[in-house]
Protein: Ras-related protein RABF2b
Organism: Platanthera zijinensis
Amino acid sequence: MAAAHENKVKNAKLVLLGDVATGKSSIVLRFVKGQFVEFQESTIGAAFFSQTLALNDETVKFEIWDTAGQERYHSLAPMYYRGAAAAIIVYDITNPATFTRAKKWVQELQSQGNANTVMALAGNKADLVEARKVTAEEAQAYAVENGLFFMETSAKTAINVNEIFCEIAKRFLQAQAQQQQNPNGTILMDRPATRSTTVSSCCS
């Protein structure tokens, strides 16, 4: 039975992209450990995490690369998003410049990345409603226009953090199912889970 379960684990490389101080690391920390640190140090280069989600009778193991937002690390980004099954592009709803930067990341992924990559746009810091500068309507319209799905998140209050990863898992599994029916495409291949991780039950 253990071997049968092992075969159902789908490995998915996921990368987080976005400007510095948008809360990428906080989103990952909230998702993986259920924690929030008020003053998170900036990521240097990239940080690696893994987390497993149970979705119906299938399990998705996310191998998460949290990339640094500083411009000096930009040249390293392709090393992390190359071959990624999914990407979360994060901006800060209180800072329009980070939304502009997010759009540039989307363009870069669309031109350089894998055509099968599941892309999500996350408007983080949704708890700071009084300081909002980017409307949900504007971001939603952009996401629809560019083939992404959009959610506003708050790593601080946990709003939509698990939900965005759950939605990615669902879309990833759908893409895998389509890939099995159309083997001429390309998508991240499965491989057995090797590291032990906590397993979260996905939202319905």
